[in-house]
Amino acid sequence: MQACAKTDVGRIRTHNQDFIYSSSEPVGSLPNLFLVADGMGGHKAGDYASRFVVEHLTAYVRQSDSKEVVPMLQEGICDINRQLYNRSVNSEELSGMGTTLVAATVVGNILYVANVGDSRLYLLRDHVVNQVTRDHSYVEEMVALGQMVRGSKDYQEKKNIITRAMGADEEIHADFFSVELKPGDYFLMCSDGLSNMVNEDEIGWLVYEDNTLEEKVSNLIAAANDHGGKDNIAAILVEPQISEVNPC
After folding, report:
1. Helix 200-207 vs helix 213-226: angle between axes, to the nearest 10 degrees?
2. What SUPFAM superfamilies does this protein map onto (predicted)?
3. What residues contact residue 225 under an 8 Å CB cut-off, 6+ apart?
4. CATH of residue 10
5. Strand-pair category, 98-99 with 18-23
């Protein structure tokens, strides 16, 4: 397995509220762990929220001896969300803070994903880019109800309104996904500073260019900045390097 993770402040913001974690080596009972969090609130509160969730979830996984991926992540996310919420309501400086979260791990040939908010995980297979996570956003809920057209003017104007975030409420519900990986697959985790600036066709083109993994991630971030860089940018690109399974 190979992975490259980077963040960038973008061209408009003065503070980077995105926080990431990337380990291709074991973390606790998990064989690897990748996290992306995009903080919100005042710049100090957003910084605090994203860092808090990433650092505390990493510590939770490291200390857990559970072999069940989804229950472990679910319990960790709920526990850390409650801690973050309590800090928010007990501190005027941190009031109203929150953060998105995408967490991923590969066990054998299965990719497990947890998601809260509108940061994303894409699966790239055979030069096709597919979004695995579902955005917890106002516009995507309206699209699902048939009340808004994806990409319309109304969609573009309201796409930053998210409907679920770590720390926003005392209780949180994360969505979970699992994908059977195949040889040649990549997956990309990113904040909306990338996904809002670079469309899926361009993401696929940049990932499948004949470059190193680090160059691919740098090119994705450069593309987001070239298209305006309106937000902080976080990207983790992973090449799981799944082996072909020979039939019995």
Report:
1. 150
2. PP2C-like
3. 8, 10, 11, 197, 233
4. 3.60.40.10
5. unpaired
Flag whether 244 is in a domain: no
Tokens 């998990």 map to which residue?
A: 30
112: in domain: yes
Indicate whether this model's pTM tops 0.90. Answer: yes
Instruction: Please identify which residue in the block is written with the tokens 């930053």.
Output: 160
The token pair that represents 106 in the structure block: 């590969």
Q: How many domains does the chain have?
A: 1
Could you tell me if residue 175 is inside a domain? yes
Low-confidence residues of the chain: pLDDT under 50:
248
pLDDT for 151: 74
Domain-embedded: residue 167: yes
Q: 21: left (phi > 0), else alpha (psi -120 to 50), else beta?
A: beta
Helix, strand and coil in the chain, % to nearest 5? 35, 30, 40
Task: Kindly report, residue by residue over 53-99, the tens digit of the pLDDT.
Answer: 999 999 999 999 888 999 999 999 999 999 999 999 998 889 889 99
Q: What pLDDT score does 238 carry?
A: 98
